[in-house]
């Protein structure tokens, strides 16, 4: 025994010291991270959990509802059977009223969004909203009188608003923090999927039906996506941030570990998020009643956050995209293409290119940052709108220029979708605090729908009265947007949602958000954190 000890002591001592050093180094490397960059440096994790991707993919379908309605109404508005059923023409104030009633329904739902999403949870909010959409679809699809059709659209808008208030909140709060831009940015890209389904459905029904089923069929198809969401939503986990705010911290930790670190609760990324959410919840414990929205603007930082939400609501709708979405057949008609089937075919093809561009744009959000994507997207949109205006103005004298109009409608859609579509919901939700995210997301849709309502009603009348000259307004407004984004919008990439508190509490939030950015492993992080 003593012989063995004598023989192995030098080697044993050396091995022991190496083991101690490794243990110390491991402990040092596993010190609780204070920033996202530190967590990533300590342990590489696979953000592409199959389960997480599947969950987010189903939640993305919530976004299809608004995209479907946008293409649906623009398409059936050009159908003769629809116009004959309700005694409407393709453009004008009567059509505008039918369009904006959907937005009025969404505005009416605003006070209930925070109540349901914060009180019952993100999943219940999505479920209830989808259920109301199914009811609205039944009312609208069976209508024989304009009053019933309008009532159905109001119910549709009401339900879509409730589901949409929780949808982006759910995806942002569940997405992996290192890939939040792509994962949560994909949510609004599915707006285009709804647009595509509606576009091709209306093209097919208009081609093969000559009676009211030409417009009833696509109206009924509108129930498909919310029905799928309702079937699956309760098989998914609740938002970990909602769980912590409702004293269910253990469940939240398990959700973070399962979907962000393959079940490892000691993972630095899991521990960072968990600790930050718990700390944020303790600092900002929400005691305000559901009807009290003062917390959205009761501090300087809160007002800056809310200003970003409001600006994004209007910029996302007043950049000329709303005209293209709702009135593309009328735009094409004003350029000299009058055949309704050709109008609907062009209307159906356009969103395919836009969705492809939006998906590519989402993949760049964590690499280029939110600000660059918005600015370059608007540059492309501005150039396209200038050419679109010029070609439309001259197409009456030269019918061949109508094809130039189509090209630049498509190019505008690609540019806007690349730079802006992924951010329309993502950016606003990122800018909000955990305790105000549901209320703020509801407010985002409130202002978004006010913007759409003003835009749609005004565009409906404007196109019928002044035609292409209306496009000049959007050219000027896009320039204004670019200036505001450059000087005031903050960069949200490279930080967890909780780390953005430092940005908004800084003296100059925009400057604070961009001054230390650098790329690590191809993604933006704060240089001082690396």
Automatic annotation (TrEMBL):
Q: Which InterPro entries match?
A: MFS_dom, MFS_sugar_transport-like, MFS_Sugar_Transporters, MFS_trans_sf, Sugar/inositol_transpt
Where, subcellularly, is it found? Membrane
Q: Name one GO cellular component term.
A: membrane
Q: Which UniProt keywords apply?
A: Membrane, Transmembrane, Transmembrane helix, Transport
Task: Identify the main location.
Answer: membrane
- Which segments constitute the Major facilitator superfamily (MFS) profile domain? 55-493
Question: Has the keyword Transmembrane been applied to this entry?
Answer: yes
Q: Which GO terms describe its molecular function?
A: carbohydrate:proton symporter activity
Q: What is one Pfam family matched by this protein?
A: Sugar_tr
Q: How does it sit in the membrane?
A: Multi-pass membrane protein
Q: Which family does it belong to?
A: Belongs to the major facilitator superfamily. Sugar transporter (TC 2.A.1.1) family.
> In its UniProt entry, what is this protein called?
Major facilitator superfamily (MFS) profile domain-containing protein
Q: State the species of origin.
A: Aspergillus hiratsukae
């Amino acid at each position: 025994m003593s012989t063995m000890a004598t023989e192995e002591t030098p080697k044993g001592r050396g091995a022991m010291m190496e083991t101690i050093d490794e243990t110390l180094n491991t402990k040092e490397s596993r010190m609780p991270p204070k920033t996202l960059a530190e967590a990533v440096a300590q342990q590489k994790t696979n953000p592409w959990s199959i389960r997480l991707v599947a969950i987010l993919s189903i939640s993305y379908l919530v976004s299809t509802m608004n995209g479907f309605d946008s293409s649906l109404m623009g398409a059936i508005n050009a159908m003769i059977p629809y116009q004959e059923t309700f005694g409407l023409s393709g453009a004008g104030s009567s059509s505008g009223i039918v369009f904006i009633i959907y937005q009025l329904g969404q505005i009416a739902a605003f006070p209930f969004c925070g109540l349901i999403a914060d009180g019952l949870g993100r999943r219940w909010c999505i479920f209830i909203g989808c259920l109301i959409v199914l009811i609205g679809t039944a009312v609208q699809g069976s209508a024989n009188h304009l009053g019933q059709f309008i009532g159905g659209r109001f119910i549709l808008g009401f339900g879509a608003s409730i589901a949409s208030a929780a949808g982006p909140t759910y995806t942002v709060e569940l997405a992996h923090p290192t890939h939040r831009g792509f994962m949560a940015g994909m949510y609004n890209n599915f707006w285009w999927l709804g647009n595509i389904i509606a576009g091709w459905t209306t093209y097919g029904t208009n081609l093969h039906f000559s009676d009211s089923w030409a417009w009833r069929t696509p109206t009924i198809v509108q129930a498909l996506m919310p029905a799928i969401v309702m079937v699956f939503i309760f098989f998914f986990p609740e938002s970990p941030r909602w769980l912590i705010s409702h004293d269910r911290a253990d469940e939240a930790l398990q959700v973070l570990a399962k979907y962000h670190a393959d079940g490892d609760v000691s993972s630095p990324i899991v521990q960072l998020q968990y600790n930050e959410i718990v700390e944020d919840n303790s600092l900002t414990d929400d005691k305000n009643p559901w009807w009290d929205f003062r917390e959205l603007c009761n501090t300087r930082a809160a007002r800056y956050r809310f200003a970003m939400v409001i600006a994004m609501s209007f910029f996302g709708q007043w950049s000329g995209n709303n005209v293209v979405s709702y009135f593309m057949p009328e735009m094409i008609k004003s350029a000299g293409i009058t055949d309704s089937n050709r109008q609907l075919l062009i209307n159906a093809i356009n969103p395919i290119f836009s969705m492809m561009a939006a998906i590519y744009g989402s993949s760049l959000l964590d690499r280029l940052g939110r600000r660059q994507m918005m600015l370059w997207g608007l540059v492309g949109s501005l150039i396209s709108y200038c050419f679109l205006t010029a070609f439309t103005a001259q197409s009456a004298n030269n019918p061949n220029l109508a094809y130039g109009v189509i090209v630049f409608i498509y190019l505008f859609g690609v540019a806007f979708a690349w730079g802006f579509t992924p951010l329309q919901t993502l950016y606003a939700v990122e800018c909000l605090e955990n305790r105000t995210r549901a209320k703020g997301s509801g407010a985002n849709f409130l202002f978004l729908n006010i913007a759409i309502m003003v835009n749609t009603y005004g565009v409906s009348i404007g196109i019928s009265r002044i035609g292409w000259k209306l496009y000049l307004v959007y050219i000027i407004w896009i320039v204004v947007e670019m200036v505001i984004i450059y000087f005031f919008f903050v960069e949200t990439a490279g930080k967890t949602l909780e780390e953005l508190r430092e940005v908004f509490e800084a003296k100059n939030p925009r400057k604070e958000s961009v001054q230390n950015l650098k790329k690590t492993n191809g993604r933006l992080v704060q240089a001082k954190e690396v």
